[in-house]
């Protein structure tokens, strides 16, 4: 740690980045810097506005630094104790997240992942073998209302743990985790520290692999998809079951009854749910298909676990991504 007041840099100030930037500013325990793209001007001029049932409404929250790129952040001369990834997890994006973060990850920087999906940590460990990686599951709902303005709704919870780096001592990683947890709690986040964050992430991805994929493939909310045929529930259970099998084959812990619980959590929502993957597809943005379906599928194939439903859903979502990226060639 370079100072008693850590420097935190958030990469990406969309829905989740806005919520956690606000939490960290409200904590008053750290200096908060951001790398922003489409909302750079708004954040620079007016600061951040968060509307939240849990944290209240805050207008004009100010940052210690707003930058257009990681190079610009590094050139400010600030050394960052934490670099928080609050962008979408796009494993096949070029340049890669690791390449983009190179200028701001220096000796002692801890990288914090606030992203959905699995397999996000490996490329970062490869690129930054001597840096701590803290991995988190974010349990909240958030959306962007306009440039520099976001809304947080439903509950807010952060389940976070160390994704151990071979070259580092567990003690060093734990210290960096403790400070991040303390700052987040001081800002009002409901933090749960977890010794087995990979199991947590895989349990969360059971949900996303199923509901995000079927809503995007059909462009329907979950209730409409499930009403359309009795086979829809069979497919949903098959997708979830395959993710559970792959996670267990990896030696991870998935509690018995997880699939039933996740089905019930979805079907109990009267009007059903859309998904972030569907939103991304409709907006013409690349989806998080690789971390939500690609990693479970590849791990299944590697471990000899049958994953026919994951292959089907992955290939459909990849085709939809391709369609968005090649509108001319996609015409029928
Ligand atoms: N939203 C939610 O309710 C939840 C989201 N999550 C997960 O959180 C993660 C973040 O999602 P979410 O906040 O919804 O995504 P958003 O699309 O709302 O925000 C992502 C932000 O990252 C910015 N960004 C991407 N690339 C760059 C770049 N090169 N330079 C600067 N900024 C960049 C985007 O900028 P620009 O505006 O220019 O595109 C955007 O502001 C995802 O993994 C998601 O699955 C998890 C739980 C709930
Ligand atoms: C917001 C929620 C829970 C809805 O499916 C989700 O995880 C997603 O869309 O990615």
TrEMBL record:
Residues 9-161 form the Ketopantoate reductase N-terminal domain. The keyword NADP applies. One of its GO terms (biological process) is pantothenate biosynthetic process. Residues 196-320 form the Ketopantoate reductase C-terminal domain. The keyword NADP applies. Its EC number is 1.1.1.169. Coiled coil: none annotated. GO terms for cellular component: cytoplasm. It is an enzyme of class 1 (oxidoreductase). GO terms for molecular function: 2-dehydropantoate 2-reductase activity. InterPro entries: 6-PGluconate_DH-like_C_sf (IPR008927), 6PGD_dom2 (IPR013328), ApbA (IPR003710), KPA_reductase (IPR013752), KPR-Related (IPR051402), KPR_N (IPR013332). It catalyses: (R)-pantoate + NADP(+) = 2-dehydropantoate + NADPH + H(+). Keywords: NADP, Oxidoreductase. PANTHER family: 2-DEHYDROPANTOATE 2-REDUCTASE-RELATED (PTHR21708:SF30), PROBABLE 2-DEHYDROPANTOATE 2-REDUCTASE (PTHR21708). Belongs to the ketopantoate reductase family. Catalyzes the NADPH-dependent reduction of ketopantoate into pantoic acid. This is 2-dehydropantoate 2-reductase. It comes from Naganishia liquefaciens.
């Amino acid at each position: 740690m370079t100072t008693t007041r850590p420097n935190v840099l958030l990469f990406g100030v969309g829905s989740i980045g806005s919520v956690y930037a606000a939490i960290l500013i409200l904590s008053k325990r750290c200096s908060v810097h951001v790398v922003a793209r489409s909302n750079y001007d708004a954040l620079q001029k007016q600061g951040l506005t968060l509307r939240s049932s849990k944290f209240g409404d805050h207008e004009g929250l100010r940052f210690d630094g707003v930058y257009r790129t990681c190079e610009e952040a590094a050139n400010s001369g600030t050394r960052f104790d934490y670099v928080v990834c609050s962008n979408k997890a796009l494993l096949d994006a070029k340049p890669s997240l690791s390449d983009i973060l190179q200028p701001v990850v220096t000796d002692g920087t801890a990288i914090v992942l606030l992203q959905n999906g699995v397999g996000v940590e490996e490329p970062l460990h490869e690129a930054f073998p001597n840096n701590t990686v803290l991995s988190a599951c974010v349990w909240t709902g958030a959306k962007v209302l306009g440039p520099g303005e976001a809304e947080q709704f439903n509950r807010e919870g952060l389940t976070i743990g160390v994704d151990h780096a071979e070259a580092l001592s567990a003690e060093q990683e734990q210290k960096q985790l403790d400070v991040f947890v303390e700052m987040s709690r001081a800002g009002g986040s409901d933090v749960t520290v977890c010794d087995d964050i990979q199991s947590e992430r895989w349990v969360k991805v059971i949900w996303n692999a199923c509901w995000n994929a079927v809503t995007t493939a059909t462009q329907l909310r979950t209730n409409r998809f499930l009403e359309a045929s009795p086979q829809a529930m069979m497919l949903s259970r098959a997708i979830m079951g395959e993710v559970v099998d792959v996670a267990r084959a990896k030696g991870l812990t998935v509690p018995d009854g997880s699939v039933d619980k996740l089905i019930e959590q979805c079907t109990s929502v009267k009007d059903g749910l859309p998904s972030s993957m569907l939103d991304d597809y409709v907006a013409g943005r690349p989806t998080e298909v690789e971390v939500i379906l690609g990693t479970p599928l590849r791990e299944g194939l590697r471990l000899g676990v049958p994953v026919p439903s994951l292959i089907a859903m992955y290939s459909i979502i990849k085709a939809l991504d391709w369609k968005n990226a090649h509108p001319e060639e996609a015409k029928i």
